[in-house]
Amino acid sequence: MIKNSVKKFGQINTTEGYSYIILLFIAMPMKYFFAFPIAVKVVGMIHGILFIIFCFLLIKASLDAKWSLKYTLIFFLASLVPFGTFFTKEKIKTYE
Asked: Domain of 48?
C-alpha cells in the first residue's frame, strides 16, 4: 500500500516535471515568438491537471509513508522550480 502510493507519486512527479518544462521552454516561446497562443492553452491545461493530481498524490504518499512535514514541503516546493522535481527523484526512490 505504502509502496504503491509512493510509486504513483514518483511517476506523477516525473510527468508533471516534464509538462512544466514543455510549458516553459516550448509552449511559452511559441506563444510569444511565433504568435501561437493555443500552445500555452493546451499545454497549460494539461500541466494544470497534472499539478492537481501531483498535489493529491503528494498528500496521499505523505500520509501513507508518514513523511515529515519537511520532506513534504521540499517535494512541493521542488515542483515549483523548473527541473526541481528531477532532483527529488532519488529521495522518492528511497521511500519505495
From this structure: 2-95
